Amino acid sequence: MSEIENIAKQMVAKGKGILAADESTGTMTKRLSSVHVESTPENRLKFRETLFSSEGMKNYIGGVILYDETIKQKTSSGKTIPELIKNSGSIPGIKVDSGVKKLAGSPDEKITEGLDGLRERLAEYYKLGARFTKWRAVYNISDKYPSELSIKSNAHALARYAALVQETKMVPIIEPEVLMDGNHNINKCYEVTAKVLKECYRELKLHNINLKGTILKPNMILPGKDSKDKSKTSEIAKMTLKCLKEYVPNEVPGIAFLSGGQTEIEATQNLNEINKINDTSFLISFSYGRALQQSALKNWSKNIKDKTITQKIFNHRSKMNGLSTSAKWTMDLEKQISA
Ligand code: 13P
Predict the structure, then answer these.
(1) Can you tell me the distance from the alpha carbon of 84 to that of 136, in angstroms, rounded to the nearest whole number?
(2) CA angle 81, 82, 86 (to 5 degrees)
(3) Mapping DSSP to helix (H, G, I), strand (E, B) and coil, where does residue 21 land?
(4) Measuring CA to CA, how many Å separate 77 from each of 73, 188, 311?
(5) CA separation for the pair 171, 164 (Å, rounded)
(6) Left if phi > 0, otherwise alpha if psi is -120 to 50, otherwise beta: which for 274?
(7) Whose CA is nearest to atom 10 of ligand 1?
(8) How many structural domains are present in the chain?
(9) Digits of tens for pLDDT over the chain (339 positions)?
(10) Partners of residue 112 on adjacent β-strands
(11) Do residues 291 and 264 touch, judged by C-beta distance below 8 A?
């Protein structure tokens, strides 16, 4: 097995998933101001270091996605952040896109940028310890959107990114996110996600990507946030698995969902339901940002000097999601915060 194929498997090994702690400074500032903490480099590091040094990392987190600022920071004891992550048996990764811009030709939609100079940046991140990367494309659902232009241009950028990453011997996470915003029903989400995935894999094959050395980070198939359609978790799981079976090639070793605005419990429960019926060879796991950090951040903001309770909350969330990768999560376990 090649090195990248091995890394991809470790990132989503049974019982483990990925912590997406790669919020850009702008997004992190919004998250911190929502809990009335000033967004300084020191405070952003303090929160992240609290999570990365918790016990939950060892058993449940196979990889951590970092942001450019964090991968270059040092802990209070002088270790680099990638060293801290590696010490707990997890793999450091890095977000390498430079965010979304208006898509010229269809300005209500978005295109992800960051290909210029990427080869050089990847070499630098590899030296800093990163072994996998992330690139996120976003698609909005409405009567008109996503357009063919947005589906094609984002898939093309994702494939060019993935080729450069594999050239540098790192694993690319392919993240095409169909947003939850809107009042569409679950069938519409299925239809759009299907089109997006189909085009992504067409482009990835065209660019000669070794799919065994990639991880897919998709959205679950969900009704829009403002929809009257309140699909049950069993329906969400059925539709999500059906879509993956149909449009994701078998060579892909792992699928790690984004949480995308689901509550912490919804994200865990839905993943658990998907794994209950998973009859594929895919390792199906999580790559959550908000759904792993929200409660921890809220608690941390009450006393940023006290790590203990924040870590306890993060350990619990990690454990609950870890259990859901093997369909072993229950609502009763959810109530027993012990970590
Ligand atoms: P959420 O789980 O909060 O959607 O974040 C995942 C992510 O990495 C988005 O790019």
Answers:
(1) 25
(2) 120
(3) coil
(4) 11, 50, 18
(5) 10
(6) alpha
(7) 136
(8) 1
(9) 899 999 999 999 989 999 999 999 999 999 999 999 999 999 999 999 999 999 999 999 999 999 999 999 999 899 999 999 999 999 999 999 999 999 999 999 999 999 999 999 999 999 999 999 999 999 999 999 999 999 999 999 999 999 999 999 999 999 999 999 999 999 999 999 999 999 999 999 999 999 999 999 999 999 999 999 888 999 999 999 999 999 999 999 999 999 999 999 999 999 999 999 999 999 999 999 999 999 999 999 999 988 999 999 999 999 999 999 999 999 999 988 654
(10) 100
(11) yes
Residue 49's alpha-carbon distances to 124, 280, 288, in angstroms, are 22, 36, 17
Cβ partners under 8 Å of residue 130, min gap 6: 66, 71, 82, 92, 93, 94, 170
Ligand 1 atom showing the smallest separation from residue 257 Cα = 2
Does ligand 1 come within 6 angstroms of the Cβ of 292? no
What's at 30, amino acid-wise? K
Which of these is catalytic: 95, 212, 217, 307? 217
Give the domain CATH number at 26. Answer: 3.20.20.70
Residue indicated by tokens 């300005």 = 107
The 3-state DSSP class for residue 308 equals helix
- Concerning whether 175 is annotated as a catalytic residue, the answer is yes
The rounded Å distance from CA 216 to ligand 1 centre is 13
Sign, CA dihedral 265-44-136-1, equals: negative
Q: Look up the domain containing 328 and give its range.
A: 3-338
In whole angstroms, what is the distance from residue 265 CA to residue 259 CA? 10
